[in-house]
Amino acid sequence: MAAAELTDDEGAARGFPRALLFAWLLLAVLLVGAAGWTALFGKPSDSEPSIAFDVSVPAKKTAALKPGPRKNGDINRIAAGSQPTAPMPAQGAQTTLPPSLVPAHIAKPIYAGAGLIADPDLIESTPSGPLPRIADDGRSPMTAYAPPVPNVQGPRIAIVVTGLGISAKATQAAIANLPPAITLGFLPYTDDVQRWVGEARKRGHEVLLEVPMEPYDFPDSDPGPHTLRAGNGDDSNIDRLTWSLTRFTGYAGVMNLLGGRFMADPNALEPVMTFLSRRGLMFSDAGPAGRSAAPDVAKRTGAPYVQSAANIDAIQTGMEIDQRLSELEARARLNGSAAGTAFVYPVTIERLAAWAQGLSGRGFVLVPASAIVPANSNK
Q1: What was the pLDDT predicted at 316?
Q2: Which of 23, 73, 116, 138 is deepest in the core (most CB within 10 A)?
């Protein structure tokens, strides 16, 4: 037998380590590929961001929440942390609201500058706190707390910036630097939220309350102990909703904080939207319609409703944000109006402020979210 020839046994002996090596290499490639896919696109269940609040023990000073990266279709991607304490900026001479939370009894209207914050005719006193209601004369919180809209013709665009109250610096930057026509969303878990709302209203901003709702990956993503859940009964969810609604006053409506699973369940969502409508509040759906049941529920019940068409800072770069805003303009030109949502990232605040400066020159009108509620809803 020639030296180069091998017997069957010898070939098998040499082939086995080589086959084993190839097997290990293949396994390594598969593992690396799977990790890369997850890093780029997330887990299949990651249709929503992760969020967790530690609100079990209220504290005067706790670690601030930090916003994390957001994926396409997400609204409020917030990394876990403790309940934030956001120091309030110095009170202006026109801000008449007491420095603490809402007073137990409100005897007369309270203003922050020209912005109405509380009106006893629009408030029902409850053990949980002041609950919005429609006044005996028919005025609703949505109309009373909404800023005036300029009488200008042109396609309307509404922007809602969410996550205010998490960071004092970011909240102050949004209130001070964004155009007054941009609506601001505040979380109910934030210390001194009423004073922040007073500052926002004093500068002319419309305010929405972000209500925590169950995401698809609950409890891995947990918006807090008062989260509205699809599996709960109506009474339980209304009790939880009432807790959020009584955290502060001066808001024109409500929007969802997370809530992919809850928003997709019409049986869970309809009692909530009906309750809000009967309280004179609008509902702003923070994410593109997709699997949301909100459009159908709003049509069926007549609830005042605004649907966000785009998350403008799903990718937090100036170029991407500018592109999303350009697409929002195209949608508004096509449909007459359009709404977008964003998070209170520094780059978002910067690009929104720059974009808004030239908006009227392009024929558009920047308006608060309440200004694009359909005329046939229960305003």
Answers
A1: 95
A2: 116
Amino acid at position 229, single letter: R
Q: Report how far residue 258's alpha carbon sits from residue 252's, in angstroms, rounded to the nearest whole number.
A: 19
Query: Which pTM does this prediction carry?
Result: 0.76
The answer to whether 155 touches 336, Cβ cutoff 8 Å, is yes
For residue 221, what pLDDT is reported?
86
| DSSP structure string for 135-150 | -TTS--HHHHSSPP--
Write down the residue that tokens 């509205």 correspond to: 228
> For the chain, which domains are there?
53-372 (3.20.20.370)
Residue with tokens 């530690």: 54
- Residue 54, H or E segment: strand 53-54
- Residue 374, number of CB atoms within 10 A of its CB: 14
Distance CA 84, CA 66 (A): 10
Residue 280 gets which letter from DSSP?
Answer: T
Name the residue with tokens 């002319």: 204
Integer Cα distance of 337 and 216 in angstroms: 30
Burial class of residue 56, CB neighbours in 10 A (0-12, 13-18, 19+): exposed
pLDDT per residue as tens digits for the range 83-92 = 333 333 343 3
Low-confidence ranges of the chain (pLDDT < 70): 1-104, 288-289, 376-379
